[in-house]
Amino acid sequence: MPNTEEEEYSGKLIVIEGTDGVGRSTHIALLRTWLESRGHAVLDTGMTRSILAGRGIKEAKTGHTLGRLTMQLFYATDFIDRLENEMLPALRSGFVVLTDRYIYSAMARAEVRGIDSAWIRSIYGMALVPDAVFYLRIQTPQQLVERVLSSGRGFDYWESGMDLHLGEDLYDSFVEYQTRMLKVFDRMSTEYQFHVLNASRSVRSVASDLRRSVTKLIDEPPSSQVDKTSLGYAASERTSSPANTATTLATSEDSKKAIL
Amino acid sequence: MISYGKHRFPGKLFVVEGTDGSGKSTQMALLYQWLKAEGYPVFFSEWNSSPLVKDTTRRAKKRHLFTPATFSLLHATDFADRTERDIIPPLKAGAIVLADRYIYTAFARDVARGCNRDWVRQVYSFAVKPTLAFFFRAPLDVAIDRIVSGRPLLKYYEAGLDLGWSDDPEESFTIFQGKILEEYDRMVSEFGLTVIDASRSIERQQREMRALITQHLKKRRSRSN
User: Fold this and answer.
1) Where do the domains of chain B lie?
2) Residue A233 lies in a domain
3) Do B56 and A53 touch (CB under 8 A)?
4) B126 touches chain A (CB under 8 A)
5) Which of A74, A162, B151, B184 has the fewest CB atoms lying closer than 10 Å?
6) Residue A2 lies in a domain
7) For B173-195, what is each residue's pLDDT tens digit?
8) What's the longest Cα–Cα distance across chain A?
9) Cα separation of A206 and A208, whole Å?
10) A51 in B contact zone (CB under 8 Å)
11) In this predicted complex, what is the ipTM?
């Protein structure tokens, strides 16, 4: 296991979160171009892009038989593969790592499926705390629907949460599923101190906000590396973290009893 | 999500654990035949058998893509699929499920490979706790017997070659199996595993297992009557 608590990472880990269709990949592409033009090395990464598990996940999703626990673990495998093989090496080398979704999407999807988010947090225990999480927030699922229609993508089984049977068809299911996801994300915004951006505006406005925030972040003097500890919160120095993020990568006897 | 130890199903789950060569698979096969003959609905769930995951596993092994953490997680993914599809439904229906290898294989192996002990247990905390888990305790030389007996060549991950203990596959395998056995021994008390002395005769072991299992089964009219 990588000993992520003690390493020095000179790069910056930036996360872009948000539900399906909100514009994450658009903004990551814009940010990347802009950062590179200013001389920063950039790695961008996202879900299902791992060499190890990416293909398997896509194949598993086509049959619609992917169970909720299996899905979570497959995504976790994909994430840890990218973390160990791409993200950590890049951060050590001083890259800016732009990541499309992070553990928060996994937690949201789990929660909406009735899976204990404490379990998710424990699986991702070795993940680093990002330098910043930008949450592209859209007010209502109707706005997402508009984007699905205008992009010509159509309603996808999984983006509509059809495995949860929330509606008779993809549309009804999409609206209900995304409504629930939006609620969960709103709560996590506070819990995990996201930088919330109103994504209902033009691409230009959102991009400009992102650039401004990222500049501030990157131009910060290399601060104490103490903040970038593993997400297990076992060694986290978060000063204003709310009480319930306290599931640690257990080492104490008590926690061990709680697990099994 | 229901955690280990908290599931309440009418069915029964019996698992066998131990190193290769310990005789556990032979015993499991005999148990399966016996239970079927006794008229019970029995299902067998095999390790690494998820159709959704096994191709990915095979590819990764071939191309040496694993780290200890991803090795653990991908096998947990396979196991989750089996749990959701092959283990829980029959148990809910009141059937018997047999498994050759279970979460304890993952715990022994992944910890021997360097994963955090608590982390692995947390990852698998969704697993159903077995009604009985048999650990076939055999000495180390049985586990490493395959080196001298001319069985198929040791594969990369099987020998633990990614871990840097030794460049020689046989030496690496020996070290690996030693660590695995240590973990198994610890788990006997941790998880209440039922130890079967693998040096006894096949018939003796089977009798012992049947006696223990019978205590957990409801009577059925035997077909042979």
Assistant:
1) 12-214
2) yes
3) yes
4) yes
5) B151
6) no
7) 999 999 999 999 999 999 999 99
8) 54
9) 5
10) yes
11) 0.88
